Amino acid sequence: MFGSYTGNIKFARAYVNGVAQAIGGEFSLGRYDYYIGDAIKQKDDIVEIDGRDKNNEVIVPKQRIKVE
After folding, report:
1. Domain tally for the chain?
2. Which of 25, 35, 43, 67 would staple 12 via disulfide (CB 3.0–4.6 Å)?
3. Residue 40 has what pLDDT?
4. Are 10 and 27 in contact, with CB atoms under 8 Å apart?
5. How far is CA 54 from CA 10, 21, 58, 63, in A?
6. Collapsed DSSP state (helix, strand, coil) of residue 60
7. Please, which residues have CB within 8 angstroms of residue 31's CB and are 6 or more apart in sequence?
C-alpha cells in the first residue's frame, strides 16, 4: 500500500483484521510505500497502520486505511 504522511515517521506497522504485520515501509519526502503481501484477502478487511519514529516508538496511532 502507499500514501502520504507528515512528520518524522521512519517505520510503520500495519494491522489486518487486528493481526499485526511486520514493521517496515519506506518513508521519504512525504510519501510512503509499505508492502503488505497477501495479508489482505477481501475489500471488507479492516486495515490499519501506525507511524513510528527512528526508535520504533509509535508517534501516530493506528489509522484505518481504505482497501480498494
Report:
1. 1
2. 25
3. 93
4. yes
5. 6, 18, 10, 19
6. strand
7. 2, 3, 4, 5
Residue 47: CB atoms within 10 Å: 18
Q: Which amino acid is at 65?
A: I
What integer pLDDT is reported at residue 45 of this predicted model?
95
What distance in Å separates the CA atoms of residue 41 and residue 55, rounded to the nearest whole number? Answer: 31
The pTM score is 0.87
Segment 11-66, tens digit of pLDDT = 999 999 999 999 999 999 999 999 998 999 998 999 999 999 999 999 999 999 98
The model's confidence at residue 67, banded by pLDDT at 50, 70 and 90, is: confident
Tell me how far apart the alpha carbons of residues 37 and 21 are, in angstroms, rounded to a whole number: 10
Q: Which domain holds residue 42?
A: 2-65
